[in-house]
Amino acid sequence: MLKKSFLILTLLFAAVSNTTAFNAYYYLSKKDTLLTSSMDTAYTHDKTQKVIVDTLKPIFTNMKIDTLESPILLNKKNINRSDYRYLGDLINYLPFGFLENLGSLGEPNEFSLFGLGFNNITLLLDGVEINERHTNAIDLYTLRSELVDSIYIPSPAKAFLFGVKNNPVAVKIYSFDKITAKPYSRIRYYQAPNNEGSIDGFFNIYPFKKFNLYGGFQNSSVSSNYPNSEYGLWNATIKARYLLNNNFNFVFSYNYSKSTADLNGGVNYSYLESKYSTSEAERILYSPFEAIVNYENRYQKITRHLFNIKILARLSSGQIARINTYYNSHLTEFRQNEKSANRIYDNDRNKSYGVNFLLPLKYKAFSLAISGNAESSSLKLNSINLDKNLSAYSTSALTGFFLIPNHLNLDLFAKYSNYDGSSAIGFGSEINSRPNENIFLKCGVAKYSLNKSVEELVLLKANSPSSRGVKTLFAKITYKKQRAAVTLSFFHNAFNSYEYWVKRDSSGSLKLKGNYLLCYRSKKQSGLNLSGRLRFYKFLLQSNFSYYFNEKKSLREIPTFTLFGGFYYVDTLFNRNLNLKAGINIYLNGEQSFYKYEFQFRRNIFYSFNKTLGITLLSNKYMKRNWRLDLFLAGTIQKRATIYLTLENVFNNKYFIVPYYPMPGITFRFGVAWEFFN
């Protein structure tokens, strides 16, 4: 099926790329630069490139957030030259980023940033929150990697400002939003063992003078390696832009995703330990043909629809105002032992209708950005026997003071949110300083409350804490020169009442399948990150190292440290026809406490409860340090075709990142991407 999709998509996009533009309306400079305008929740300003013919000026969403730093952590150029299967793999490139990799394509990997994941992250696509409303999480496989133009992570001090609820971490994804002088299309394809493969492509044309059209789809699949680990995915996107005039743009977009993932629950290592010696159990653990998995008849289907109508308006001051009207539908069909008497047959459906806006204002040395969200959600959840409508709204304001233009800024910000009657308020401030061209400093603090989760609102009600507060401190210093960039970052989060789940022996008041109890505790966590790049002669050194200071030495919810780095040879060869990047990728993770990954509710379980011992850790053992080394090559030929070659896990290390989900041994991946212009 994948090969047929590849052939059809190649022929389709080749045809589109060779179609002469009808009434081509945009005449850009010879460098094919874009007419861009910046817009976000803080400082905004216009940046208009020179054009040959001064006609319409499209308004583009851009992530520049203040005048002192360029906050783009990953842009399209960097993404295209990175080693990744899907969007989640790019988390390793982000400061304080860690991917809870389950070892096989399609498994619903969770990710963490600043030491937090699982119900703590707001994910926004072009300004619209796309989290599934029950678990407050999302499967990153349902987002097309080729759709992504850039990724930005706001500082932890400002993260709670974004989205309907107050979350400690925010991720802002910006999709491909570009108008070129000629029709443009791109195809990316890769193939790996176990019939693993993916094809992702899109086209961008302008059939009429004021109308731009973008579309594409993705098909990914893999056969079972370990029992019950097959996966299939279809993603599709369509986006249309209408340019009314230079001051108003209307953008309609629709994203569709449907996937089926087998969930084997990892290898049943307890059974292996009871039957074999330790060495033999370890051997079988990493033998797909001998290993026994926890679930041979469990899977889930995910269907997502996201509609968004966006209005962009250029104000007289040059600032860009935005209004999004959206519909977000998410259906998870969870099945276990489907044909037996003790089956689990749950359909969890979320539907959200909402509108949000951004109004930025600027006057001399002062700026103000006001944003708001209003949303109505319908939750029909078989998993917790819930059928309820929820309403939510929030408003926030950010004021900026240019104390010393281009050298010193002060931000003050606040937010009020209400989630079905659960109110949360937050305040914060941040200082940005640039003493000279090479050094940038940032320091921010915030204090805010968290909104209640669905379980708290519906199942616990009065038994949950009246207020759950967070105090955050964040600081970083960046040094940049032409061939080097180094950033040192520090964060500290203090929760007075952190939510966590406990697995218990018998059912209780929280009516969850699997018998889980919702509990609270205080929590403090800090982290230090050193990331950067160094270019010398024709070599490039990149590193992203994070270290976490755990309050409780007995509990390590994420690895004590993570390292993702690379050493590459970078050069332009063969009369500047080949742009080559070749070298090694290194992954290294420290010790981490054992835990149970609960798929259905997207939670990690570290504790268990019984009447005799009370609440204790599931295991006193720690996962050992693990590492992996890959050989990687990306070569771009005449700026049109890029070939990817990856020899993964060169030394064939036996390890897992999530308990008893073995990571692949030595494997080879081949990929290619074509870009078509005309």
Structural commentary:
It is built from 5 helices and 37 strands. β11 (196-208) and β12 form a beta hairpin. α3 (269-275) packs antiparallel against α4 (278-285).
Structure summarized in a few sentences:
By secondary structure, the protein is mainly β. The relative contact order is 0.13.
Which structural category fits the helices and strands?
A: mainly beta
Report the portion of residues in β strands: over 45%
Distance between the termini: 29 Å
The biggest sheet amounts to: 22 strands, antiparallel, barrel
**Continuous helix count:** 5
CA-based shape: globular
Roughly how much helix do the residues carry, as a percent range?
under 10%
**Total beta strands:** 37
> Which segments are poorly predicted (pLDDT under 50) over 5 or more consecutive residues?
11-54, 507-512
Computed over alpha carbons, the radius of gyration is 25 Å
Summarize model confidence as the mean pLDDT: 85
